[in-house]
UniProtKB/TrEMBL annotation:
Its EC number is 1.-.-.-. InterPro entries: ADH-like_N (IPR013154), ER (IPR020843), GroES-like_sf (IPR011032), NAD(P)-bd_dom_sf (IPR036291), YIM1/Zinc_Alcohol_DH_Fams (IPR050700). This is NADP-dependent oxidoreductase. Keywords: Oxidoreductase. The keyword Oxidoreductase applies. It comes from Balneatrix alpica. It is an enzyme of class 1 (oxidoreductase). It comes from the Bacteria. Residues 10-307 form the Enoyl reductase (ER) domain. Coiled coil: none annotated.
Amino acid sequence: MKAMVIHQYGAAEQLQLAELPLPIPGEGQVRIKVAAAGVNPVDFHVRNGLLKDTGTHQLPLVLGWDAAGVIDALGTGVQAWQPGQEVMVFAPIGGQGCYAEYICVDADLLAAKPSQLSMTEAAAVPLAAVTAWQGLFKVGQLQPGQRVYIHGASGGVGGFAVQLAKARGAFVYASCSARSRDYVASLGADVCLDYQQQDFAEQLTELDLLFACVGGNQVLPRALPTLKSGGRLISTFDEIDPALAQAQGVDYQRMWVQPSGADLKQLAELLQSGQLRVQLDQVWPLHQAREALARSESGRALGKVVLQLAAD
Ligand SMILES: NC(=O)c1ccc[n+]([C@@H]2O[C@H](COP(=O)([O-])OP(=O)(O)OC[C@H]3O[C@@H](n4cnc5c(N)ncnc54)[C@H](OP(=O)(O)O)[C@@H]3O)[C@@H](O)[C@H]2O)c1
């Protein structure tokens, strides 16, 4: 099968088209014929060597950890799924990725593809939307009526987070640049702040939750005074000394998303009922994964970047 792999860690040119053996599903696994694969910042972080010294991966490594496609083969012991079913998945980041014609994943990580979504739209969902879900609800414990600020609301994670927080009944403050304002407002944000013109730390107080989907600019230390005592500060990337947050009565966590078929199924229901929608930024063919990754790495994607392997 064709796949985009790295043989060494490093810059864009390390990502190359390769011919790999067809993977065989193990016990409890399904093999998916990939129709589209999501592109996420973790892909270029891994390519650059973020996990190089952790022993997480063996090279050559297929990048990309979410996908949509059609089940093509079952391993032993799989009862819940059949060949031919259309599914989406967030695959474990510790394993081989989805920039490939086929992947094998544990069957309990799958969710059925919502019927009104194309394969490219469905591939845009799993990793970013599960991050938003777990960040807001599992780690952040957001409740109806609470005040939440989503920093970086126009990206993959932030766009889902705004919609999920609104659907939960929160009052949503969100930041983006001026060009993304209409998009973020259309997702349901109650107040949009232009992070290039307005300092959220001067505008916001008494927040229950601050979800930092984008780092940089000392966002975490500046966030602390905007939270009420007992409020929660959740970061997807930057880190601070937990003692700093503790001293201000803030519950701070640097989250690590975990693949979860159960969470993905709940997101699929919201997509199916139209309460959640998908914004595609750019779609590239598999062999142009370098270009797709460059778009993600630019930090300017409005919504999601996706690789398309089969016509929608
Ligand atoms: N810890 C975890 O488990 C986990 C899971 C998933 C993702 N992440 C991390 O979360 C981060 C976001 O991921 P993503 O997929 O959402 O990224 P993304 O889609 O690439 O984010 C792009 C967006 O970031 C916005 N942005 C750039 N600089 C900003 C700033 N200073 N303030 C506010 N917004 C800014 C851009 O908006 P404008 O173009 O409008 O400026 C753009 O829309 C990445 O660092 C990723 O590695 C972590």
